[in-house]
Amino acid sequence: VQLVESGGGLVQPGGSLRLSCATSGFTFSSYAMSWYRQAPGKERELVAQIDSAGGSTNYADSVKGRFTISKDYAKKTVYLQMNSLKPEDTAVYYCYVKITLVRHYWGQGTQVTVSS
After folding, report:
1. Distant-in-sequence, close-in-space partners of 101: CB < 8 Å, separation ≥ 6
2. What was the pLDDT predicted at 54?
């Protein structure tokens, strides 16, 4: 299983970024996918989750209305569209999939920095 994130960078407050997580090694359509983030000195937290069919999503309260998670089944890629970014969104963002109770995988992470 491989998860490869991209799309991070430096953006001004109020700006937008779209993160991508390209996947391989498992049946993409069969599993929920998640985005987590970890800011310096803080624990990793769940940002957004999408179910296997793409019909149900969940978001952290701090990003509701600003972030959107989606799946492209043809590309086996999960996206996180981030709008109205705030300095407190600064973190390393990770893609995550749980295959079984003991098989779960993280991407390498992509840095998002929101600063003027």
Report:
1. none
2. 87
Dist CA 68 CA 87 (whole Å): 18
Are residues 97 and 31 in contact, defined by beta-carbon separation less than 8 angstroms? Answer: yes
Spatial separation of the C-alpha atoms in residues 30 and 79, rounded to whole Å: 17
Phi, psi at 53, each rounded to 5°: -85, -10
DSSP letters for the chain: -EEEEE--EEE-TT--EEEEEEEESS-GGGS-EEEEEE-TTS--EEEEEE-TTS--EEE-TTTTTTEEEEEETTTTEEEEEE-S--GGG-EEEEEEEESSSS-EEE---EEEEE--
1-47, pLDDT tens digit by residue?
999 999 999 999 999 999 999 999 999 999 999 999 999 999 999 99
